[in-house]
Amino acid sequence: MKNLIQRAITGVLFVGAIVGSILLGKIAFASLFFWVTVLTQWELYTLINTKGNAQINRQFATLASAFLYLSTLLWNQFSAQIGIICLAVYVLFCFGIVIYELFRKDGNSLHNWAYFFLGQIYVVVPFSMLNILNHSFEPEFLLALFVLIWTYDSGAYLFGVTLGKHRLFERISPKKSWEGAIGGFLAACVAALIFAHFFSSLPVFGWIGFAALVVVFGTFGDLAESLLKRTFNIKDSGNILPGHGGMLDRFDSLLFATPVILIYLAILIGESCFI
User: Fold this and answer.
1) Which stretches are transmembrane (predicted)?
2) Which tens digits make up the pLDDT trace of 200-243?
3) Looking at per-residue confidence, does 240 or 174 come out higher?
4) CB atoms < 10 A from the CB of 194, how many?
5) How many CA atoms lie within 13 A of 60 on its CB side?
6) Nearest to 11 by CA among 253, 254, 249
7) Residues facing residue 177 across a β-bridge
8) Of the candidates 65, 74, 75, the residue with the CA atom closest to the CA atom of residue 122
9) Which of 69, 42, 35 is nearest to 57 (CA)?
């Protein structure tokens, strides 16, 4: 019961912070996810150093991540010139990481390079795309992305607990079932229909397609993080969110769904939205 109350309080604060930042505007959301990016990246590199047969300079690598995030944010929403400067600093950090390994007497240099760039692609790029999504399209799409992920997760849990018999990917995540996935998809479709009722920025089938992509690629994001944890032989990626684990545990679905949704909207609404 204590753990359930803890999870509920953390969940309410978590949802409130994200929804509140979206409603407050682009700067509030970008500021929140700057810290989300930094904390998630620090968590990932900590895991890698502990379990991944590598030794990355976490301070240096996380600072590089911050500059990559800021470069896309500034370029897209404020000043292209300042964005280019931040991007140039980020490139220098990347060169610094590579050169640093040349001077280290460490047999895992290739692992260190690979894990460093994996972190940039896996974490920073999707989080940076959230700001592009927020800037280039109507705010309901960003809100829908989060709401549909939460709705799918909740539906998949409820249907999986009550009806789940056939495992989805037993080798990677033994608790996930096809029944849960189908139930989560139906719940997400209902949420998409609600968005279609209140927002005409997409037709009904456009919103259903939105939900389907979130479900499919969000599930793959969840499974990818489960594979990462299974490889490192851990239950949670961290403990920063009481009752919910780490940052990667909470944002795994978002990391795969965001790029796909951004492309989907660009195709459906038009790439001129990026200008």
Assistant:
1) 12-36, 78-100, 112-129, 141-159, 180-199, 205-224, 253-270
2) 899 999 999 999 999 999 999 998 998 888 888 888 887 777 66
3) 240
4) 14
5) 18
6) 249
7) 167
8) 65
9) 42
Q: How many residues does the chain have?
A: 275
Cβ-Cβ contacts under 8 Å for 232 (sequence gap 6 or more): 47, 50, 51, 52
d(Cα 254, Cα 173) in Å, to the nearest integer? 18
d(CA 94, CA 104): 16
d(CA 263, CA 190): 23
Query: Could you give the CA distance from residue 96 to residue 231 in angstroms, rounded to a whole number?
Result: 28
CA atoms within 13 A on the CB side of 69: 28
Letter for the amino acid at 31?
S
Share of the chain above pLDDT 90, in %: 47
Q: What angle (nearest 5°) sits at the alpha carbon of residue 215, between those of residues 34 and 138?
A: 50
CA gap 186, 23 in Å, rounded: 27
Evaluated on CA atoms 259, 261, 267, 272, the torsion sign reads negative
Q: Which of 121, 142, 143 has the alpha carbon at shortest distance from 255?
A: 121
Residue 173, helix vs strand vs coil: strand
Answer for the pair 109, 55: CB distance below 8 angstroms, yes or no: no
Residue where the block lists tokens 């240096």:
60
**Strand boundaries in the chain, DSSP class E:** 167-169, 173-177
